[in-house]
Design a protein that fits this description.
The structure holds two protein chains of two kinds. By secondary structure, chain A is an alpha/beta fold. Chain B is mainly α. Classes of the chains: A alpha/beta, B mainly alpha.
Chain lengths: 662, 129
């Protein structure tokens, strides 16, 4: 029999306002096996933990139950306290009487009764607890960053500067990401390329950084500290060591009709291409879907003009296998498709564009060489209408429920830049709310209104109708004047909602990192662990975790790097001892457990067993403790009851259920 | 959704709309083809229901100017759908007149081969106490 100490936390009023804590102590004190029971205002505080240490010493306790918040919050805290008191940390159980009780109940009598029941269940479990000892696993001192935008670049630079090797995997032919597509950045209006390209060069030149562009993560196995990753280097059809980046091949390529991804399809590119002039690496790729040589076997012009002899049509995809201690996801975002928003006529008129497309129009290297003009006829516009919240804050299955966060600021930026460069152009912005929290952000928006005369109207646009004269009729609300207004515009710019890059679903599955209903990667704790995935060793950088602007992305990228460095700095990691264990005398070697194991942790071997005096060779399951994550799937699947989870054995679970049903 | 006895609750119940979801974007009024004819505009309907001012709605011109074109229902980004509120307000007014506009006994006489059954059912639902 254990000598159990039970500690009931008030959590200020979080628990005590709904649960009669004194009554819980009174009832639980009478439970068999309970050698000590007390309550305290904040058990997690230093004074609260001291009470545990004191009681263990005075009452010679062998097990501890803390009735408090979720074990996700403070299980670690109390395990450490137990360890300081000389107990095995796995002799601690948490009865969650906050999230599972006080927060969800209103009636004190009922809540108190439930708290007592939860405490009894935890006591029943501790009675069967045995000390557990974590193993050790090694840490590979190398990090992988998935995505080569500003988030990935900054994370890689910070990790590399701390002295660790970093690999960046980027699926497009160049690093740079969305930021390389932007013209100017808010709130300082400095040119995006001028601040991004030096960072791209720095990453490429860094001796600790290896960049795999035009590459994708194919397979991930292993666990924190010891991941093994297959990187698929897609066939570039160019020998990277030979190419000098002279660009002659791109000039001579006769296939020039493919929509340019970099310019959002507003103009075309050649089949052999670099996405943009400052691409890193400055080595083109051949788009085999568009290349005449690959489609018909004829052409081969690029090979003829390449003086370096770098063209290689025979190249195939190559798989690089590398080991990593930590993985940072920085897969970024894209704008949502507007196919369901017919009212804005986006698919009907080339003069209705998204804000990201406007970035390319405004950019000197873009399809119009930086001249503001209508894409339909090249005419200089007289009136431009901006529509905010297109697909953001929508509850209607067409868009996204969240605020995309960056649109208010970039729309103010666009409006201001246009008024500055072309004072003759009238600019109207339709908004629902203007949200500009951030350093110097509201001042920036007010400047657009007060100094640049941008006309902000509160109300949404109901429809955009292309007219026979080429103009666009914009019908909208002016809510402050309680009017419906009809405006003639030459261009309409839609502040389109952003969403995580579609590739993130595949990557999250490979990493077993959780994502939310909007495909944003979930952080381990919304406030206290915002750059870590709940999956150990996986860190989050940039918009893949939630909408954010460049300064926030860079800050988060640094934070993710620090967390990865903290992991890489360790030589060994303690493994979770709550892993599965098979009883070879009960195991019938059926393989059901191996089939359900998501981590590939179960293998089979033939061993000689002594079953009640009969010696025989049997095929039995063997769990690799380093790979097992303790999910428990095998224990449920095992038909003979041989598989058990240490720390959560079937006996312990049944004892808890019995205590609850008593 | 509450099932209270006051008229605003009744409108919410009939329409199935939660006006609290409205974030005052005005897309309904921006899209409404009958906007100029209305004294209370579609986006204001939401506030009138929220403020329990159903008398004003019942006496408004708008109630009968709405074309039931459903453009606001189609485009509302918040699933508030003012067109449904207007329709519910109409039903309340009709029911309050006290009269059965369509009595069950009268229906057999109205039956006509070319008349869709749905029309009768829907008319009966709407135009009776």
């Amino acid at each position: 029999m254990q000598r159990i100490g039970v500690f009931v936390c008030h959590c200020g009023s979080n628990i005590a306002a709904t649960v009669d804590v004194k009554k819980v102590v009174e009832i639980i004190s009478q439970e068999p096996g309970v050698a000590h029971c007390e309550d305290y205002q904040y058990m997690c505080s230093e004074a609260g933990q001291a009470k545990i240490l004191e009681a263990v010493k005075e009452k010679n306790l062998s097990g501890i139950v803390v009735c408090s918040c979720s074990p996700r919050m403070h299980e670690g805290t109390f395990r450490k306290a137990a360890e300081r008191a000389g107990l095995n940390p796995y002799m601690v159980e948490i009865a969650n009487i906050r999230e599972h009780c006080s927060w969800i109940h209103k009636d004190m009598e009922e809540a108190t009764e439930k708290a007592v029941i939860l405490a009894r269940a935890a006591i029943a479990k501790v009675n069967l607890n045995a000390p557990l000892y974590p193993g050790e696993s090694r840490v590979t001192k190398r990090a992988l960053v998935i995505g080569g935008g500003i988030a990935g670049i900054q994370t890689a630079l910070d990790i590399a500067d701390a002295g660790y090797e970093v690999d960046i995997v980027e699926k497009t032919p160049s690093i740079g990401g969305r930021m390389s597509q932007l013209d100017k950045t808010f709130p300082t209006l400095d040119c995006s390329a001028c601040i991004l390209t030096p960072k791209m060069v720095e990453a490429a030149a860094h001796e600790k950084i290896t960049i795999y562009t035009y590459s994708e993560v194919d397979k991930v196995t292993g666990f924190v500290g010891d991941f093994t990753v297959d990187i698929r280097k897609k066939a570039r059809s160019i020998d990277m060591d030979k190419c000098t980046g002279c660009g002659v091949c791109q000039e001579k390529c006769p296939s020039k009709k493919t929509p340019s991804e970099f310019n959002r399809g507003l103009n075309t590119r050649s089949a052999i291409y670099t996405p943009f002039a400052q691409a890193i690496p400055n080595v083109p790729v051949i788009d085999r879907e568009a290349c005449i040589k690959f489609k018909t076997g004829k052409c081969g012009l690029c090979e003829k003009v390449c003086q370096a002899g770098a063209i290689n049509y025979e190249q195939t995809d190559e798989i690089v296998t590398e080991k990593y201690g930590a993985i940072v996801v920085a897969t970024g975002f894209d704008t949502i498709k507007l196919d369901n928003y017919d009212e804005y006529a986006y698919n009907q008129s080339p003069d209705v564009i998204t804000s990201l497309e406007l970035e390319r129009v405004m950019n000197a290297a873009g399809p119009t060489k930086g001249h503001l003009e209508r894409l339909s006829d090249g005419k200089h516009p007289e009136h431009i209408v901006f529509v905010q919240c297109v697909g953001s804050r929508c509850n209607d299955n067409r868009g996204k429920s969240y605020c995309s966060k960056i649109c208010c600021m970039y729309t103010a930026k666009h409006a201001m830049l246009i008024r500055d460069k072309y004072p003759d152009v009238k600019v109207t912005v339709f908004y629902i709310d203007v949200r500009t929290p951030g350093k110097n952000f509201d001042e920036f928006y007010r400047r657009a209104v007060e100094e640049y005369g941008v006309n902000y109207i509160k109300g949404q646009v109901g429809k955009v109708a292309p007219q026979s004269d080429g103009s666009l009729l914009v019908q909208a609300s002016d809510l402050l004047d309680n009017k419906q207004i009809k405006l003639k515009a030459d261009m309409v710019v839609l502040a389109t909602a952003i969403e995580p890059d579609p590739s993130v679903r595949r990557i999250a599955t490979m990493l077993t990192a959780s994502i939310d209903t909007n495909n944003f990667l979930t952080e381990s704790h919304a406030k206290l662990r915002p750059v870590e995935s709940p999956t150990a060793g996986i860190f989050l950088s940039g918009v893949c975790q939630g909408p954010k602007d460049i300064p926030e992305t860079v800050a988060q990228a640094g934070a993710a790097a620090v967390k990865a460095i903290g992991l890489l700095a360790k030589d060994k990691l303690l493994t979770n001892p709550c892993t599965a264990k098979s009883d070879e005398l009960l195991c019938n070697g059926c393989s059901v457990c191996a089939n359900v194991c998501p981590y590939g942790a179960i293998s089979y071997e033939v061993v000689q067993v002594n079953d009640h005096g009969i010696r025989e060779d049997r095929r039995v399951a063997r769990v690799n403790n380093a790979l097992c994550q303790g999910c428990g799937a095998c224990t449920v699947a095992c038909p003979s009851g041989a598989m058990d989870l240490q720390g959560f054995s079937n006996r312990q679970i049944i004892a808890e259920v019995d205590a609850i049903c008593r | 959704m509450s099932h209270g006895t006051n008229k605003a609750d009744k409108i919410k119940e009939i329409s199935g709309v939660n006006p609290l979801k409205c974030m005052k974007c005005g897309k309904c009024s921006a899209t409404c083809p009958a906007f100029d004819e209305m004294d209370i505009k579609p986006h204001q309907f939401v506030s009138y229901v929220l403020n329990d001012d159903i008398e004003a709605l019942a006496n408004s011109k708008s109630l009968w100017k709405c074309l039931s074109c459903f453009a606001c229902i189609e485009r509302c980004p918040r699933d508030v759908k003012p067109g449904k509120l207007i329709d519910a307000a109409r039903q309340i007014v009709i029911r309050e007149k006290g009269a059965d506009y369509l009595k069950a006994d009268e229906i057999p006489a109205l039956l006509d081969e070319d008349l869709p059954q749905q029309l009768l059912v829907s008319a009966f639902r709407r135009y009776r106490r």
